[in-house]
Amino acid sequence: MQVLILATKSTRAGRQLFCNLGQILKVKKFAGIVCLLLGVIISTQAAHLVGGEISYQCLGNQNYRIKLVVYRDCASLGAAFDNPAAITIFNGTSQYLNLDVNLAGRGSLPVSAPNSCTTLPPFVCTEKGVYIDTVQLPASALGYTISYQRCCRNSSISNIPNPGNQGNTFTIDVPPNDFSCNSSPDFTTDPPVALCLNVYSSIDMSTSEIDGDSVVYSLCRLYNGGGPNTTNVAPGALNSPAPDPAAPPPYSFIPFANGFSPNNPISSAPAFSIDPQTGILTGTPSQVGQYVFAICATEYRNGVLLSTVRRDFQFNVTSACRRIRSIISGQAVDSSTLCTGRTVTFSQNSQNATTYFWDFGDPLLNNDTSNLANPTYTYRDTGVYQVMLIADPGQSCSDTSYSLYRIYNPIDANFTFNEEVCFEDHMFDFRVNGTYSDSARFYWSFGGSTNLGDSSRVEEPLNVQYFQPGTYVVSLFVDDYKCFARHQDTIRLFPRIDLGQTLSETTGCAPLTVTFTDDSDFLGTARHYWDFGDGTFSTDRSTQHTYNEPGIYSITHRIITSEGCIDTAEIIMQNQVEVYPVPQANFSVNPQVTDIYHPRVTLQDSSIGSSQSQTFLPGGAVLENLENDSYTFTDTGNFEIKHIVYNQYGCSDTAFLTVRIEQPVNFFIPSAFTPNGDGINDVFRFVATGVSQLEIQIFNRWGERVFISNSSQAVWDGNDAETGEPLPGGVYTYILIGRVTESGVDEKRSGTIKLLR
């Protein structure tokens, strides 16, 4: 019995004594069995850990009562509650104590539903284990951190990644220099074991605070602790399921999966939130699954942070709950649904109901009811009615809902007014037509300033006059028992024609192109007419016209409107366009074709209607006011001469002439040669100038051709061109044909040559 007492003492030394007890008593078999069992307990992974928290109460004289609460699934295949649990106390980040705390009590949480008519499924179950120990903690400038770590969480958790490999750190701080003997907040109620899908939840997460300190509640982050390793790991290592001792602070956070966060840890609509003052957690789960999140209760004294109790817990959202809910499909509050008449088809989206009772809310009738799921009812009159629906009437868990329905007749309103007129004569009377009640209210928007202002609230405005011509959109709004109708029409007030035009040019040399632009102010359609004064016309609104003949022209512009103010406006612009004459440039060059041996030419002006001129010669020379001048060319070729003349209006004309200076045709032909090899006059050759193609033929006295060539560099050595044999001395005849380079005409020369041997 003494051995068992030693083994359960709440100290790290107690466990060591328990393992060494077999050695002390020389009972090896007993010691081996005990230590083996402890190793199995330490290394087994708690795969279905649900959550927990740590709190403390100051008992006085620096004594603190520590309470650890751990939650686990009843159906867990992992380890049972640690017994003892290793709770480690740190002074700053240094280990101060490592306690072995026995399990003080355990039990299942009650399976409570959000309300008495919601039934939770029978398979949900959560166990609660409580560990309590008392330690003495002298006041420290660093304060104390109390921690317990355990792995692992359910692998089916939806809102954190790799949940089966994530553990828990339950921790709380004792403030530095705690001479006032602070006690932490302590959660007063257990969390629910399950939440119902699409059922509003209101969960009390409040704490008791015996010191009267302020407590602020918030959703906060999850701490990780321990690890899933069970092989090749020393029992109690930091990466084992049950670290012994726990790791020192600070502790790492568990990240949330995509779409989740500490403030949005569960799929819900509306989202879960906690009241920072009351600790009431509210929200409606919208998706089945398992979700972990943390609730922090942080205590302050005179604005100074003392400690934070963190409840880490797993909520199970199930669709297996059953609750009867009466839900009437509400009426959309707009004129398209309110103002459709007195017959209404009702619909509902009740849950888990099989029978129904409707009361349509007519206070003067008792038979305005129905037992159909989606009934249709016709009201006697318009008005606002409170409709009631009981889902599963007569049952203990029946549910009732109400909805206001507004019943109005449809309205159809429009207006007419007298025909469109000229602005000068207008006055409008607006008449309303259609279906509406005597209580209908009217609002007019005239689309512009009138003698009644921009708007009016009378039913039928009369004698309405606008201040300016133009196009106006008139709108009528009718409000009849919250039903609305709108009608619009357009008024066009036509002004008298304000004739206007712009001419791009009014003077210039012929041919003169003028752009005629209509700048008239009028409304509606109209016919346009332009008379250009030279016998031509146009019916375009804006146009162009070219004057080819010199002269002074009067322009007529006319507009005839065909709607609104039917009117004609015309203006005659006398002598508006003046077209100046253009001189005719002409000159002569004599001769126009010559050769380089005769390069001088005479230039003579023969222009008509000019007052001055400029003549541009080859090489950049310019003759001012040409009369009868000469010019000498210095090279052969074709040369262009430009002659520009001007009159007194600045109008000009240009003439061009090309002068050809040819190279002279010359043939230089010797009369004899002596092919004796002495290097002097051994061959017959000739020189030709002014030709581009040549052919020479040489014949003997019997008319036989002895030489032919097409080259201007032809050379005859006195031999027969075919046999290569030397020819005898004597007289030979030649024929030379050359094509003149400039004219392309063939020049022919013939004569005799003496071959001397």
Topology (elements, then pairings):
Layout: H1 2-7, H2 12-25, H3 28-43, E1 49-60, E2 63-73, E3 85-91, E4 94-101, E5 103-108, E6 118-119, E7 126-136, E8 144-151, E9 167-174, E10 186-187, E11 195-196, E12 201-204, E13 207-208, E14 214-220, E15 273-274, E16 280-283, E17 289-301, E18 304-318, E19 322-323, H4 335-338, E20 343-345, E21 356-359, E22 369-370, E23 376-378, E24 383-391, E25 399-407, E26 412-417, E27 430-435, E28 441-450, E29 453-456, E30 470-480, E31 483-493, E32 501-503, E33 507-509, E34 512-518, E35 526-531, E36 537-538, E37 543-547, E38 551-561, E39 568-580, E40 587-590, E41 593-595, E42 600-605, E43 612-616, E44 622-624, E45 628-632, E46 637-646, E47 652-662, E48 666-668, E49 672-673, E50 684-685, E51 687-689, E52 691-699, E53 705-709, E54 715-716, E55 730-740, E56 746-755
Parallel strand pairs: 11-18, 33-39, 41-47, 49-56
Antiparallel strand pairs: 1-2, 2-7, 3-4, 3-8, 5-7, 6-19, 8-9, 10-13, 12-16, 14-17, 15-16, 17-18, 20-23, 21-22, 21-24, 24-25, 26-27, 28-29, 28-30, 30-31, 32-34, 34-37, 35-36, 35-38, 38-39, 40-42, 42-45, 43-44, 43-46, 46-47, 48-51, 50-54, 52-53, 52-55, 55-56
